[in-house]
Design a protein that fits this description.
Chain A: Its main location: membrane. Chain A: Keywords: Cell inner membrane, Cell membrane, Membrane, Transmembrane, Transmembrane helix, Transport. Chain A: This is ABC transporter permease. The complex is a heterodimer. Chain A is built from 14 helices and no strands. Chain A is mainly alpha-helical. Chain A is globular, with a radius of gyration of 23 Å. The two termini of chain A are about 25 Å apart. In chain A, about 40% of the residues are buried. Chain B has one domain (about 40-274): MetI-like fold, CATH 1.10.3720. Chain B is mainly alpha-helical. Chain B has helices spanning about 1-30, 40-50, 50-80, 85-100, 105-115, 120-125, 140-165, 165-175, 180-210, 210-220, 225-235, 240-274. Chain B contains twelve helices and no strands. The radius of gyration of chain B is 23 Å and the shape is globular. The chains are: A mainly alpha, B mainly alpha. Chains A and B meet through helix 1, helix 3, helix 5, helix 6 and helix 7 of A and helix 1, helix 3, helix 4, helix 5 and helix 6 of B.
Chain lengths: ~270, ~270
């Protein structure tokens, strides 16, 4: 009997949590389709005009492109910085990992607002493009996500043996890495890239304070709209949420796809 | 040796350029007085100025209440999550991940639609002739806003720990004649307690460092340490970057100490257990 009542409670609690987290999002979604919804319990009517208005706006397109560019650059830099190190730590020297642990708590000890203070103090008057500093700084702050996703990719296989066999067979280290290691950690790399991209795409604090109004990304545009045009802002918020949902969906698909792969090779150990 | 260098070069360069150098310069600048000599004047101001102490009080208050409250919900939530079927479990984990990424401007905007001056909550309370007992732009409103990302974050941190608890342990201890309370106190609590403390510290630190949600929700009307730093950096006439550096230095110092302490708690317990 114990198990039944606790399952019952668990379902109730999760339903309550679901409603609590989803309500603001659903309300924003309905708001974005409403003709007007001010000081009334229900909107006065439904329309698509706010969507067509926002999407045809040049500011929207350019801010979207800036955020996409920022996301892509950051993703590439984060991979360049971390892929070799995580590979080395997992294959040759596990002690490196304990040194890397500082990275995982970085967003808590040095959050964006603290880091940006140091960046402004150091780079405000130096003739280095602020955009370059911004991309590097976002890469640094996204490292915990990159690190954990990549580190998970190395669980479960003997990469050292694989790598050294390739070396013995005459491949250069780089070639061996590309031919033997990369195909086996594809899923982890994809997940790491998606997570990094998402965090950079939605970055606000660093971009806003470091570049001010000179570089309007999607989030900064969203904030500007929020001050002036509630309907347009609700559309943008909805689009942003759909983007997050899509990323989650892709993540689930990747994990399912590769989990199936794993199961077929080691049947019986799962379930 | 050269391959080792090649492997670590990009990461080291990144860490030096946008972490070590800026943070060192920030710490040095925090000791700069008006005449660019060494001075503790900024530190004195932080602790004596009333406006600044209000920021510190607000930050500590909001962070303490949200982190404790969110932790309690997260414990119940993580426990419930372990009771669901694997596919529902995954759906919820995705939801929590999304909610955590939704923090900031989008969250603030959603809450304004819901609870703001022209919002639905307002219409509802007016229609039902209820008193207006809740204001989203206030301290309590900000505290509520933080829970929307602190709770999912807490669940995501705690869930793996709860998953590791083996349901068979309960049966074993029951067979051996232990009461459920004894089982909870002697078996479950020693395992999860250090993790709970660590998660509490992380949630607290996360709330302390929150800038985007507070700024988007309240502008500069609610002053916290992060929004104060923001104003000190680009506040036009009132800009005072060395003072911003002082706040940031103190913040980094205190949070690093706290997080390090939290890490110690879990690790020493683990070593005892092993």
């Amino acid at each position: 009997m114990y198990h039944k009542t606790s399952t019952y409670w668990a379902r109730g609690i999760m339903t309550a949590l679901f409603l609590y987290l989803v309500t603001p999002i659903v309300v924003t979604l309905i708001y974005s389709f409403s003709t007007s919804w001010v000081k009334t319990i229900l909107p006065s009517g439904f329309t698509l005009k706010w969507y067509s208005q926002l999407i045809t706006n040049a500011d929207f397109t350019s801010s979207l492109l800036r955020s996409l560019g920022l996301g892509l650059l950051t993703t590439v830099i984060a991979q360049i910085c971390f892929l070799p190190v995580v590979f080395y730590a997992n294959v040759y020297d596990a002690r490196v990992k304990s040194h890397l642990r500082f990275v995982t708590v970085l967003p808590f000890t040095i959050p964006g607002i603290i880091l940006v203070t140091g960046l402004i103090q150091l780079y405000a008057d130096l003739p280095i493009p602020k955009l370059l500093i911004l991309v590097l700084a976002i890469s640094l702050l996204s490292l915990p996500l990159t690190y954990q996703a990549l580190d998970n990719a190395f669980i479960g296989q003997d990469f050292r043996a694989m790598f050294e066999q390739a070396l013995v067979l005459g491949d250069s280290p780089l070639k061996a890495f590309i031919k033997v290691i990369l195909p086996n950690i594809r899923a982890g790399i994809l997940i790491a890239m998606l997570l990094t991209f998402t965090s950079a795409f939605g970055e606000y604090v660093l971009t806003n304070i470091l570049l001010g109004g000179n570089f309007e990304t999607l989030k900064i545009y969203m904030y500007r709209l929020m001050q002036s045009n509630g309907q347009a802002s609700s559309v943008l918020t909805t689009i942003y949420f759909i983007f997050l949902a899509l990323v989650s969906l892709i993540l689930i698909v990747i994990m399912r796809h590769y989990a199936k792969h794993d199961q077929s090779s080691q049947k019986g150990t799962h379930n | 040796m050269t391959t080792r260098l090649k492997v670590f070069f990009p990461l080291s360069l990144l860490v030096v350029l946008v972490l070590l150098l800026p943070i060192s310069v920030m710490i040095v600048a925090s000791f700069q007085g008006g005449d660019a000599g060494f001075s503790l004047d900024n530190y004195r101001q932080v602790f004596t100025n009333h406006y600044y102490s209000e920021a510190i009080r607000n930050s500590l208050g909001i962070a303490l209440i949200t982190s404790v409250f969110s932790l309690l919900i997260a414990i119940v939530g993580a426990w419930s999550l372990t009771h669901l079927s694997p596919s529902t479990k995954n759906m919820f984990i995705s939801l929590f991940n999304m909610s955590a990424s939704f923090a900031g401007v989008p969250l603030a905007f959603s809450l304004i639609i819901l609870f703001g001056n022209a919002g639905i909550w307002q219409a509802l309370t007016t229609a039902l002739h209820l008193p207006r007992f809740f204001e989203i732009y206030s301290l309590s409103g900000t505290t509520l806003a933080y829970t929307f990302f602190e709770v999912p974050l807490g669940i995501l941190f705690l869930f793996p720990v709860f998953e590791e608890l083996n349901p068979e342990w309960r049966e074993i201890s029951a067979v051996l004649g232990a009461s459920p309370f004894f089982f909870f106190k002697k078996v479950i609590l020693p395992i999860i307690f250090p993790n709970i403390i660590e998660v509490l510290i992380l949630l607290f630190a996360n709330a302390m460092g929150t800038y985007e949600t507070t700024f988007a929700l309240t502008g500069n009307s609610i002053v916290t340490i992060p929004t104060l730093i923001g104003t000190l950096i680009d506040g036009g006439l009132t800009a005072n970057i060395p003072l911003a550096c002082t706040f940031a230095t103190l913040f980094a110092l205190v949070m690093t100490a706290l997080v390090w302490l939290g890490n110690r708690v879990t690790r020493s317990k683990r070593e005892v257990a092993a």
